Amino acid sequence: xxxxxxxxxxxxxxxxxxxxxxxxxxxxxxxxxxxxxxxxxxxxxxxxxxxxxxxxxxxxxxxxxxxxxxxxxxxxxxxxxxxxxxxxxxxxxxxxxxxxxxxxxxxxxxxxxxxxxxxxxxxxxxxxxxxxxxxxxxxxxxxxxxxxxxxxxxxxxxxxxxxxxxxxxxxxxxxxxxxxxxxxxxxxxxxxxxxxxxxxxxxxxxxxxxxxxxxxxxxxxxxxxxxxxxxxxxxxxxxxxxxxxxxxxxxxxxxxxxxxxxxxxxxxxxxxxxxxxxxxxxxxxxxxxxxxxxxxxxxxxxxxxxxxxxxxxxxxxxxxxxx
Length: 323
Known about the structure:
By secondary structure, the protein is mainly β. It is built from 3 helices and 20 strands.
């Protein structure tokens, strides 16, 4: 019986391996990158406040009773949500609102919410955070708290969650004590008036091709930002060597529908499920990224960084990399 079971499991594993290899084989044109670790070192339904709330609010943990465990919960993939009253606000991967405190400072960054205050307003850890799609990743940073832990900052402002937010989308912390405010994507106080609609922009595909004066044809995302590959990644097995702090500097390109592309290779155009839970787009089975140092469409500041980062051609090849 054990022999039959072992043979069955081995056959199933071989079938899965064969199917995966068909979808994401090695990119022969660029060579086998192998694995490794990145060497980059970057930073890394509105409801009103309840009567009687003071500047701290209540005790307990956001989304549950008791705050000790949730206080250290990583934010993961940040998102931007629309609030009728406040405009665009930043939430964590679970949909909980991030707040800023007027008594903190952004320049230099300083967190002043300690002790009982920190029980009601758990600090958001700086580790394991990915910028929301369409936002400036360079706005993310960290500040060292009095206890030595690193707290996430956006635009220099330390970020917190609120103990009375028990469900995704809650905004119970808004204007508590007149000093706590939901954070806008740039770290400023969320305000619908401050985020008046801009003139309609040209709608671009999720991924398309731009002709660069120096590099030639390169792939760009829906914002017109240059897309890059990392030489330390591998296509088979599909693996990203850019993790942790590296991912803050080189945000993973979010999944894009094949029908939302223009002029790029669709062979090996699959979603990569990263070990950190972030879903990442790949081109010819190579994970792709943008660069936080590119601040406007057309920038190619990531080209050649460390001899390992290069723009991507429409065929998924490294542009300008030494042969």
